[in-house]
Each structure stands twice: as C-alpha cells, then as structure tokens.
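User: Here's a chain of 145 residues. Predict its fold as tokens.
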Amino acid sequence: MRALIQRVQNAQVVVDGEVVGSCGHGLLVFLGVGADDDEQAAQKLWHKVSGLRIFADAQGKTNLSLADVGGEVLIVSQFTLLADCRKGMRPSFAKAAPPAEAERLYEYFCELAEASVAHVGRGVFGADMKVSLVNDGPFTIWLDM
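Assistant: Prediction complete.
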C-alpha cells in the first residue's frame, strides 16, 4: 500500500462538476493499493498516517499529529501511485491491485480513518476526479507499507 500525503489548509474533489469530498486543515491522502495488500497493510498505513507528527506546535516545530490539531482528512484513491516507469516510456500498472480488491481496501482504509477522525472526505473510486488543494508548507510525504 502506498500513500502520498499532503498537509493542507483545505482540499476538495470534484466529480462531474460537483464537490463529492473535502477537508479543511489536515491531510490529503492519495492512496494506492497494491496487488499484495491486505487489511493488515491498511491498518499499518492508517496508524502511521494518523500518528505522523507533521503539524507545528507553538514553537513552530513539527511535533503534533492529526489528532493533536483536530485535523480533517480527504482520501482519494489513486492507482497511478503504483506505476512502474523503469522500462520504456509507458508506465506499467501491473503491481496495482485488481479494481474490485483495490476498492474494497480503499473503503476499509476510509473506515479506519472515520473511526478516529471527526471529518473524513472521500473521492469516488474509479471516477475521473478533479482534486484541488492548498498545500500547507508545502509539506508532502511518501509512505510505502
């Protein structure tokens, strides 16, 4: 499982001209599900994401977690995070999970987030999404589990 995490002031996802998910101050999580991923990988990744101390404390040091700042989350499925570009000019997505399994684990990851965060927005799995955000920092982290 792979996540690209951005600390944001706000973010939103638009599908067919309508906002389907959003968040205020917190994290935008782009989530890629690999062919070998399972619930344990999702749990481990959510534990890491939610516990990352990447928010500033009163002294400006990155010592606070999402819970510490009462942050929100927007989770967007993005299989292209699993792209393999080592050969040729066309990315291979062979390492991505099949769509049905990826959707199941994406939904599970979202449920884990919803169990511990007051506001969790979601993208629409498999949809053509337009994502906009105001990155806070900028602060972007890549996580592999």
